[in-house]
Specification:
Elements: H1 5-11, E1 18-21, E2 25-29, E3 37-43, H2 58-75, E4 82-85, E5 101-105
Antiparallel strand pairs: 1-2, 2-3, 3-5, 4-5
This protein binds adenosine monophosphate and zinc ion.
Length: 114
Amino acid sequence: MENCIFCKIIAGEIPSAKVYEDETCVAFNDISPQAPTHLLIIPREHFDSLDKAENGHKETLGHLLYVAAQIARDKGFAEDGYRVVINTNRNGGQTVYHLHVHLLGGRPFIFPPG
Ligand code: AMP
Ligand code: ZN
């Protein structure tokens, strides 16, 4: 997808601090971390937002959550707990329109978020 910053990260055209990648997704540190660990897990296949999810995306969507759980365990904050967020469209606070899962850990989070 042209002019998509996350597609450019996947293509290596924009640098990122990758922490994990496989055939389906890439995970890298958020440039503006909101917690001691704050990373983004994105599908290699571009789709704009959760609002654009189709039947064919189910496996990828499940995979993104599974990878979030794996990374949280690997990084050692799973038992303490963590927050997984998918901001969706304008009211959801989405700013980058390539679907992404935020994984935040290393501090307590309140609910509901602002
Ligand atoms: P959202 O507001 O849910 O769309 O989240 C977009 C996230 O992407 C924000 O947390 C930004 O800090 C993050 N972000 C934007 N550009 C980059 C980048 N080049 N590398 C890493 N994270 C980025
Ligand atoms: Zn994209």
